[in-house]
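User: My instructor asked us to take a sequence, write out its structure as tokens, and then describe one feature of it. I'm not sure where to start. Here is the sequence I was given:
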Amino acid sequence: MPTAPALSKCRPPSTRACRRGRGVRTFTKTLKHMSAGALAIKIIEPGRVTPTPDMLDAVVNGDLEAAFTWSGYAMAKAHVFSLFATVPFGLMPRT
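Assistant: Let's start with the prediction itself. The structure tokens for your sequence are:
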């Protein structure tokens, strides 16, 4: 199974795989700036430590300190995650 390229190697972020994760990159930069460098997050490419669907388990087990993933992967463990994983009215076509 191919993995997405490391986010740090996406210069310029022109490919579709590199555009994914833009939100988490913005969040990490903002957090570092707002904390004056006291807090920093290291982004690890998807699948490097654990498969993406198992990221919640990796956080619970202490293998990862935090994870940025789709909450739908955790729906089998806690049904409350389905509230955040569904798309109201279905997917819209791109124009």
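For the description part of your assignment, you could build on this observation: The chain has two domains: 1-46, 49-89. Try explaining in your own words what that tells you about the chain.
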